[in-house]
Every structure is written in C-alpha cells, then in structure tokens.
C-alpha cells in the first residue's frame, strides 16, 4: 500500500493536509495523526470495514477495543447515558488525556468496541487532532500508531518506522506533549474505576469524586484469575526488543545494584542500557546511559519514556536496566508502563 506522508508545521498554512487526511477517513481509509498523549492510528469509528483496517495494520488482537476520539464534549449520539460524574470529568478534563468508558449506542459497531457493550471516548487537546476529527465529521477510532506490543510512538518518525506501507496517510506534527497514553476511567460503574493510569492522576480525579479508585488488577502481574479490567492491559506491551529489568529500593543501593548488574552483563559480552534519573545518571560507570528526567519532574520522565526505550533498540542493546520511579502522581503511569515493558521483572536492591 502506498502511504502519503505530510508534516503539518503551521496549522493555517498546512490546513490542506489535514483536509486531505480527513477525506481519507471519510472514504474508509487509515490515517496516523499526532495527539498530546501519543500518536494515533485512526479511521472512521462508525465504519466497520475501516475499523478492521486498524487491527490489521497494527497486528492488534481482536479483543482489544479502540478508543473513540471526538471533537466535542457532546457525546449523546454515541452513548446511552452520561452519568453525572462522567459529565463532571468531561467538563473538567476535556480536551485532554482522559478517556471515559460508557455504555455505547448501537451506532458504534461491535468491531470498534471488541464486542463490549461499553465504549471508551476521549477529546484530544491538540489542534491537528481536533481539526482532523472536525473535517472528517465522524468520531475517529484510534489506538496508538505502533505495531502491537511495541512502545507507543511520540513522534512521527517512529510511526513511519512501524507503519509505512501499512496505512493510507501519515500526518505528522509536533512531538506528543504527555508521552504516555490517556488515563482511562470506567464510568459504567459507580463509583468509577481507573482502568489505566495516565497524566490525569488519581489525585486529580479524586478532586471530582473522591470515591474513584485504581483497578487493583493494575498493581501486579496478570494471572488467569487476576486480570486487569481493560482488555488491553493484560497484554505484554510497550516492550522494546531488548529485555527490560527494573531495579527498585533506596537511592544508594539502587545505584550500587545497577552498577553491579551492568558490569556483570558487559563482562558476559552483552550490550547494556541504563534508564536513569537525572540525579543518578552521573553515578553509573559503564553501559549506555539515557536520562529520562528528574525525579522531581515526573512529567518529563513520562514524556521521554517510550522514546528512550525505542532509542535503545536503535543502538541494539541486549538488556535495559531501569531505575524505579516513585508511584505517586504520574509516577503510577510511568511504573505501570515500565513494569509491562519489563514483564514485571523487578529486582529489590
Ligand atoms: P490504545 O488505544 O492502544 O491505547 O488502547 C486502548 C486501551 O483502552 C486498551 O487498553 C483497551 O483495553 C482500553 N479500552 C478501550 N475501550 C474499552 C472498554 N469499553 N472497556 C474497557 N477498556 C477499554
Ligand atoms: Mg497502544
């Protein structure tokens, strides 16, 4: 398949690219586009055949539902009912990195929701995404624009790497501001439950309704009788080609343990990468060091996480040793993605 690539540098000057991409969506094609969380791979959410193309391009399991991207806070045509708390969340956090799960109307096809009665919906904040949805005049179903299982792309180059020749159009723009996928809140239950942590933190959500809690299924490795509630969260995910190991514990011991491990692997002929905080990065003696950001600025760490994992693949490391970050605020989302990338391989220093 031929893929057209167009980069939007200036929204006004390059608006024709967005219109062209929107026409592809209208005609049942697939378009990669930037959002503030990660890049998405979209098609007309209400067109079954168009939605199937997304699953095919990504190699995504059929039982993993897609999120609908909308350009308006009025979602009454898509869902049965918007409960009070969901409306409050929408008013407070849209446009932004928050997905709300509600019971769907029949207009949303079963392929889009992976046969669930509910559907996830989000209004992204970026101008390119919003214009694309407006011009397409339909909600756009869009998972992250990567081959299934790989770390999500936060810039257009990574989308090209994964999806060139597999989609109709790649619309580039700026780097994703947030860097991890949206927070997902299931509002089909009362009180609502957080199915996936993201940049909108549990503390932010509790300010709207303090009964909102995290799905306990997110906390440890999924097993046959202990699964996260969001179908997609059970898969090994966000994984670079290299093996990932997380080291947690107090600062001094973590540095010592990581130095020990790096030395061991290098002496056994392996190429080793270290995902480090800015504060600790100077203390590592060997290996390729990538700084994720300061422990005092977890937004920066989230922003750099997926790109750092992918750039270790570029240089072909065999093993990535990652420092654990504090599971507070956006740190919950960072550790959720890191643990999944590591297949829950965590060492206490
Ligand atoms: P992605 O778009 O790749 O970030 O994946 C979407 C995530 O949203 C997956 O983890 C899905 O399982 C989850 N999701 C989407 N729709 C629903 C739904 N109706 N109920 C529960 N989880 C959902
Ligand atoms: Mg994804």
UniProtKB/TrEMBL annotation:
One of its GO terms (cellular component) is cytoplasm. It catalyses: L-threonine + hydrogencarbonate + ATP = L-threonylcarbamoyladenylate + diphosphate + H2O. SUPFAM superfamilies: YrdC/RibB (SSF55821). GO terms for biological process: regulation of translational fidelity; tRNA processing. GO terms for molecular function: ATP binding; double-stranded RNA binding; L-threonylcarbamoyladenylate synthase; tRNA binding. It is an enzyme of class 2 (transferase). It is found in: Cytoplasm. ATP binds at residues 60, 64, 144, 152, 196, 238. It comes from the Bacteria. Its EC number is 2.7.7.87. This is Threonylcarbamoyl-AMP synthase. It comes from Clostridium vincentii.
